[in-house]
Design a protein that fits this description.
This protein starts with a helix and ends in a 13-residue tail after the last strand. It contains one helix and 43 strands. Strand 24 and strand 25 form a beta hairpin. It is 5% helix and 44% strand.
Length: 443
């Protein structure tokens, strides 16, 4: 009996202590569970990992909440100049595999992701990249995006029903393209709702590259080529207005009068291929788009074949923009740029490419058809910079070196884990020992 009494007294004492502790807690304070966050993925803004940082460490003008499965990020007077390197991109805002994202804009905001500001960081300069979810811009503020790569890039990772949505009274001014991919049979849409006002250098998305624009909303397209939402899908080779620039001249223009000495052009309708023959051609000028100058520029016109005869060269260095108000202020030199088409370099001649930026770029723009850069016959190509492919969805474009072709470059980044496919008799010399090195050395 005495033992039971002692136990009862101990339990009563513990209960009284518990009650005393409760009375010391502030009555108006709510004690909730920690703020929720997505179970997977990552979000980086201005180089800061939001999901693994305290709020006090967030960039100025940035706040974050996870509400009903949506990552809500308020951007209020933010100036984003740093990025996060992943997925082959260096992105000012990077949200990968976290679900849907909403950017609430307040006041004036900027994203500047340029080669000149972070030259050592790896990847294409992209303003905003989201993977696996929809992206919504809401609020009453504005956002100006200056990027050397795409301004906004959404990859749905095969998930249907995803979209980029501009709503409320936001204003977006982007110097480069808005781009979606990866929605399986249904490529993600772009929707401009309410009184949202959007400007970009073209849009490529579902609905034949046409954004849905509500009454009261507006879209201004600064690109009159591929991706023009008023033109729908690219018309295809031989149909409608197209451009193919060599040495700064559009050789498909009605005004072209053989200005590039040593160049000839043909179109193979059986294979839908534009054929450029270079015979002792020295290219020193280029087509200029924001932040880029390209010696040969083929924007979404189909496959390209460059036939080399004799000795040829492309020399496009980086140089400052003569317009002092230009943003970006630097123009990066690129040798050959092909968008949404295969590139073949053939013949028995040579091509020496000297550029300030990448030597050759092929952007498949999310095409479901396999694409590649192919060197064949007995060509010799010597490039001081990188050969680079991107944009093939799950199948990044390859680099093929066939027959007795001989290629030298400062690394290759492509499908097949950055390994070019080199046939017996062909050869590749890699002058880079760092990133982009296929296999860590010459294959």
């Amino acid at each position: 009996m005495r033992t039971r009494t002692v136990r009862l007294k101990r339990k009563l004492s513990l209960f009284l202590i518990f009650c005393m502790v409760l009375t010391q807690l502030p009555a108006d304070k709510t004690y909730a569970a920690p703020d929720p966050k997505p179970e997977t993925g990552s979000i980086f803004i201005d180089g800061t990992d939001l999901l693994n940082s305290d709020e006090i460490e967030y960039p100025e003008g940035i706040s974050y909440y996870y509400v009903d499965g949506v990552n809500v990020i308020t951007v209020s007077g933010a100036a984003i100049t740093l990025g996060h390197s992943d997925m082959g991109k260096y992105s000012g805002i990077y949200a990968n595999d976290v679900g849907d994202v909403e950017l609430v804009l307040v006041g004036n905001n900027t994203i500047n992701i340029l080669n000149v500001t972070e030259p050592e960081s790896a990847g294409d300069r992209v303003g905003i990249f989201t993977g696996g979810g929809s992206l919504t811009f809401s609020g009453t503020g504005n956002l100006t995006i200056n990027s050397d790569g795409r301004s906004i890039h959404l990859d749905a990772y095969g998930k249907p029903g995803k979209a980029i949505i501009f709503e409320n009274d936001v204003t977006i001014v982007a110097n480069n393209q808005i781009f979606t991919e990866g929605g399986g049979e249904s490529r993600p849409l772009v929707k401009i709702n309410d009184t949202a006002d959007v400007t970009s250098h073209g849009i490529e998305c579902g609905n034949d590259n046409k954004p849905y624009i509500a009454d009261g909303a507006s879209f201004n397209n600064t690109d009159d080529g591929g991706g023009d939402p008023e033109g729908g899908v690219d018309p295809g080779p031989g149909h409608g207005p197209q451009s193919l620039y060599v040495n700064g001249v559009d050789i498909l223009s009605e005004d072209y009068d053989g200005d590039v000495v040593g160049l000839s052009y043909d179109f193979d309708s059986a294979t839908d291929t534009h054929i450029i023959t270079l015979n002792g051609v020295n290219i020193t000028e280029g087509y200029i788009s924001p932040g880029r100058q390209m010696g040969i520029h083929a924007p979404s016109i189909g496959d390209i074949e460059v036939i080399l005869i004799g000795d040829n060269s492309i020399n496009i260095p980086n140089e400052p923009d003569l317009n002092q108000e230009a943003d970006p202020p630097m123009i990066n030199g690129i040798g050959i740029f092909v968008r949404n088409g295969n590139l073949t370099i053939s013949g028995d001649g040579t091509l020496d490419i000297e550029t300030g930026d990448r030597s050759i770029i092929l952007d498949a723009y999310g095409s479901t058809e396999p694409m590649s850069i192919t060197f064949k016959d007995s060509v010799t190509v010597i490039a001081n910079n990188q050969i680079f492919t991107e944009g093939g969805g799950e199948s990044r474009p390859l680099v093929n070196i066939f027959d007795t072709a001989n290629v030298t470059s400062r690394g290759i980044e492509c499908g097949n884990d950055n390994f070019p496919i080199v046939e017996a008799g062909a050869s590749y010399i890699n002058t880079e020992t760092g990133g982009g090195d296929p296999g860590g050395g010459d294959p």
